[in-house]
Amino acid sequence: MDQSENRDKKSTDPLYTLSVVSRLTNTPAHSIRQYIDKGLILPYKTKTKRHLFSDVDILRLKCIRKHLDEQGLNIAGINALFALVPCWLIKPCSEEDRKNCDAYSDVTKPCWLTSEKGPECKNTDCRLCSVYQLPEKCVNLKDFIKKLTNS
Fold it and tell me: What is the pTM of this model?
């Protein structure tokens, strides 16, 4: 494993409790719980059902706050925005696989919230997936999609 892979691995390690993340992101704990309930963030769960958050989760929460505070989106709007990410281009899958994957056609839920996933993603930990981690970078999705489609 090279140094960048090691750094990426560490950034997804569950390290922080809800109260610490609340302080670090200046987001009330009840709001973070709501984001978890609505699927905007997928923190690690311990055996005792306690949530632990990674550095990636912190960046993701800051991006969610940016969408809420600066762009005026609500939670449904953010989920719809994340649903527009063309996961089938990021994690290439066949036309046949797309037919059996809700993420390909659902415009209201991002791929990590869909019930039927294609074979490429069925046994994948969504927290570690590049599609799920994309919003944590808070990229301009329109520019990102243009690059993916060479437009």
Answer: 0.82
